[in-house]
Amino acid sequence: MAQKAAKHQAARNTSILKRTHLISLAINALFILLRLVFFRTSYIRTTFILYGLLSAPALVIEFWFERIGRPVNAPNGELKKAGEDLEAKGLTEYMWDVLYWTWGCAVVAGLFGDKAWWGYLVVPIYSLWLAWTTFGGMKDGILGMAGGGGTGGAASVVTSNRQKKLEKRSGQKMQ
Known about the structure:
By secondary structure, this protein is an all-alpha fold. Helices cover 67% and strands 3% of the residues. It contains five helices and two strands; from the N terminus they run ααββααα.
């Protein structure tokens, strides 16, 4: 039963990486097949330049996941390192979002043409929104701990339902 969690993590990471590589292979092959075979008349050099540039982040993320998530076994077959959790929150979750969005843009661009790559602008917009909400929440939290945060000072004090009932019964304002 030693290292049961590590073995479970290693098996889960191996499964996730295998699935990710197969999906990536299928989507990239679909794009190339659609552009070269079925939509040959709309093939231009910029199609594959855009494809290469805008698919590069997905490939980099996929190789990064391979590097940090692939389990390492010792020569005798024992698990040496289970790999990082590929289902972790935070940056890993954001990287999965970028990977999925890139795959979606590649499929849509393969079916409908190069203008679909404009949908990739969602990634930096989403990044800016995440940064804004994260730092905005931190700012409010820090100002709230200092006692000076908020808008309106004492007027913005929120009272609980219990306090409201007690005030109503006694006729006085509770502090």
